[in-house]
Design goal:
Two copies of one chain form a homodimer. Chain A is mainly alpha-helical and about 200 residues long. Chain A has helices at about 5-30, 35-40, 45-50, 55-80, 85-100, 105-110, 115-135, 145-165, 170-185, 190-195. The first copy, chain A, binds a DNA duplex (30 and 30 nucleotides) through helix 1 and helix 3.
Chain lengths: ~200, ~200
DNA sequence: AATGGACTGCACACCAGTGTGCAGTGGAGA
DNA sequence: TCTCCACTGCACACTGGTGTGCAGTCCATT
């Protein structure tokens, strides 16, 4: 069934390569143009437009990809039925490599396509807020901020640290997880125990 | 000595109004053009260019203003000689209204003028890192991240919460301070005691 | 060998923003 | 009253990005 003609495959490969490289290029400079992406993908600008009719289409596809992956991870770790803090740790651990690749979306959320991206990311935001809310209800997370804000900020910190991972000497997933746990109100000893269990 | 001709004053007023309003407009949309700023200031685009030869000049002036104010606050609270965590609380409390106004600079730091702004903000970053380092050396702050990264992230969170202050129902300075203290590794009870002392 | 289509390489038109030039206009200061 | 000058209101040139059109090339498929 999955017989794919060599033609169709190479076209899909080009498309995927454009998407992959766009994530890289936009990750370094969110204002990069279609030309920059095309060059980096070893292709001509015109070709990019053959695959994605507009810049917004490209960004949207990228976002949809991210939403799919993050949602998958999130629902999967939620299925374990563990306590909210342990679930959070598992979530970040699984999310870390993905977060680093998709860090650009946080930057893209402001400016120009912000609204479109925000809309697509809405469901993820809700799932995240639900998890934090559950943690607050079971007294493992603090209540100094409402669940939606807190989840957003904790989530943002993880991406921010993933960002600084480039220049700085790799603080890494562990430090990011601990930091997010701390701001969620998890005591330091408990936080260390949690990430120690799943390093 | 401070006799200022009515002419010179109205010119300075215009200049100040442009700066003030630019902070607002860019705060809402960092990609706003000189035209938008001009209109918001009740002035023609050409006039803005009479005061600031280029967009970069405007942004730089804005940044210099911010650096001056933040540095003043920071050195002032440092002068008290209090423990690092108490100093941090005092710093955020004094910074809060300013942070809300200058929140745009965090967005402007990425993209186009990022380098110029980053250079101007360098001294502030150092002072901040020094404070956090002192806290780590005296065991009031945790060491899960190096001082420079940790200060940067904690600082960023305060601005992020100041940002969400618009849409959301005013979490306010107190919540922001507690959140930043938590991620600095200050235990929740201590954090609450600290902000309680200076609400 | 012929065909179809992915990709190239160039051509455009279009737009939005930046920065400049210059002849006004109106009000403060001499 | 006359001069100066901040501000206006147009003009313009320039840049850099977006999106489209189209002839041509190359190669897998038929």
């Amino acid at each position: 069934m999955s017989t794919e003609s060599s033609r169709a495959r190479s076209m899909r490969e080009t498309r995927d390569r454009i998407l992959d490289v766009a994530l890289d290029v936009l990750g370094e400079n969110p204002d990069a143009g279609m030309g920059d992406i095309a060059s980096a993908a070893g292709v001509v600008r015109r070709t990019v437009y053959d695959h994605f009719p507009s810049r917004l289409d490209l960004v949207r596809t990228l976002t949809e990809r991210a939403v799919t992956e993050v949602t998958a991870v999130l629902t999967e770790v939620e299925a374990s039925g563990a306590e909210a803090d342990a679930t959070w740790v598992a979530f970040i651990a699984r999310l870390w490599p993905v977060a680093h690749r998709y860090r650009v979306l946080l930057a893209l959320r402001r400016g120009e396509y912000g609204e479109a991206i925000h809309a697509l990311l809405g469901p993820v935001d809700e799932l995240l807020a639900d998890l934090v809310k559950r943690g607050q209800d079971t007294d493992v997370f603090a209540r100094h901020l409402p669940a939606d804000t807190l989840s957003q900020v904790a989530y943002g910190v993880v991406f921010a640290i993933a960002d600084s991972d480039l220049s700085n000497g790799t603080p890494g997933a562990r430090a990011a997880t601990i930091t997010s746990l701390l701001m969620l109100g998890v005591p330091e000893t408990r936080a260390i125990a949690l990430v120690g269990a799943q390093p």
